[in-house]
Amino acid sequence: MRNDVTKAHGGTLRVAVRMRLDGPAGPFDLDVDLSIAAGSLVAIVGPSGAGKTTLLRVVAGLARPQHAQIHLGSTPWCDTESRVELPTRRRSIGFVFQDFALFPNMTVRGNVDYALGARGGAGDADRLLDLVGLSGLAGMPPTRLSGGQKQRLALIRALARRPAVLMLDEPLSALDPAMRRKLQDDLRELHARFGATTLLVSHDAAEILRLADRVIRLDHGKVAFDGAPAAAFGAAEPEDGLTMIGEYLGGRDAHGTCMVRIDGRARRLRLSGDGVTSLQPGDTVMLYADRAAIRPAAIRSDGTPPDAKRASLRG
Ligand SMILES: Nc1ncnc2c1ncn2[C@@H]1O[C@H](COP(=O)(O)OP(=O)(O)OP(=O)(O)O)[C@@H](O)[C@H]1O
Fold it and tell me: Which of 48, 74, 139, 140 is buried most, with the most CB atoms less than 10 Å from its CB?
């Protein structure tokens, strides 16, 4: 590892998989063919039992599909036709599960050192711990950490080897909302810094709107939606105008102009409406506008995040 934290490398992740799964209502196929751009953060959503975790396990080499072609750039990780199967340890991946899977008998620093392995240089673990504010706890066992601290440790441990692909299976679901919000910020920062192509399984619409640049919805093993986050969660096209979903970023001035992130881009907008004065940075906000004010290309729909606040755009 170099002294500075540099971006991970890798190419497009191609995942074509067909695997027979045994669901509670009978067998069905996980059947997807995806091309995931290097450095993107893709949310995998869908109902329980749709195959989300299995898809991650297949990419990691922890589950064996009948048919698969998985490549990172030009490197084959799995090709069932030519009988290539790279073992998990040789795939450039980091994995964070909901239960963190930290080593309780090692210190916080020991957990990171273990992940760095022989490649780690003097001070590498401390630099990583510093990134997420855990330096002061380096000598503690992980059992002494709070849920959020454990989660941060799990994240930097997964990133320690600078994997090309980071897989996060509902990593924040056990945390309370305030801690979740903070960890989302950390995750966004680590993603920008390390640049790992990230697959995030999540059920939280607000979280996905804050973090992801693409949403893939699986249903019964098939891709039911593949597109932009705002389109995945929300924007309807009612008779009298258009709606879309964004994240309130703050900076409201006396005229009601403020910053809102829509599909990954921060924009300056003038908002009005009952909920506007109580908006906090990070809140999900549902925006209504005249057709004249917003390009229709930004709009699509099929649902609304349950915690979205409402506001309307003024001209
Ligand atoms: N190796 C396997 N062989 C056959 N069936 C499997 C295998 N692994 C998982 N399954 C089945 O595939 C289905 C999908 O499981 P999976 O854990 O991928 O769903 P999920 O979308 O992650 O659900 P949740 O949101 O509840 O975690 C389940 O019914 C599971 O029992």
Answer: 140
Burial of 30 (0-12, 13-18, 19+ CB in 10 A): buried
Q: Do domains 13-227 and 230-313 have the same CATH topology?
A: no
Distances 212 to 208, 215, 227, 314 between C-alpha atoms, Å: 5, 7, 11, 27
DSSP-based helix, strand, coil % in the chain, nearest 5: 30, 30, 40
Asked whether the whole model's pTM tops 0.80, one would answer no
Q: 63 CA to middle of ligand 1, Å?
A: 11
Fold (topology level) of 13-227: Rossmann fold (3.40.50)
> 214-219 and 222-227: which strand pairing?
antiparallel
Per domain, the residue ranges of the chain are 13-227, 230-313
Task: Quote the ipTM score.
Answer: 0.97
Task: Tell which phi-psi region holds residue 165, choosing left (phi > 0), alpha (psi between -120 and 50) or beta.
Answer: beta
What CATH code would you report for 230-313? 2.40.50
Task: Look up residue 144 and give its DSSP letter.
Answer: G
Residues near ligand 1 (Cβ within 6 A): 21-23, 46, 48-54, 63
Say how many Å lie between the CA of residue 11 and the centre of ligand 1. 28
Pocket test for ligand 1, best of 19, 21, 95, 170 (most atoms within 8 A of CB): 21
Q: What is the full per-residue pLDDT of the chain (315 aa) written as tens digits?
A: 443 444 556 799 999 999 999 988 899 999 999 999 999 999 999 998 999 999 999 999 999 999 999 999 999 999 999 999 999 989 999 988 776 678 889 999 999 998 888 776 778 888 889 888 899 999 999 999 988 888 889 988 998 888 999 999 988 877 777 778 888 888 888 898 888 999 999 988 888 888 999 999 999 999 999 998 877 875 444 444 556 677 889 888 887 788 888 777 888 887 776 667 778 888 777 776 654 444 333 333 333 343 444 455 543
261's enclosing H/E stretch is strand 257-262
Phi, psi of 225 (to 5 degrees): -155, 140
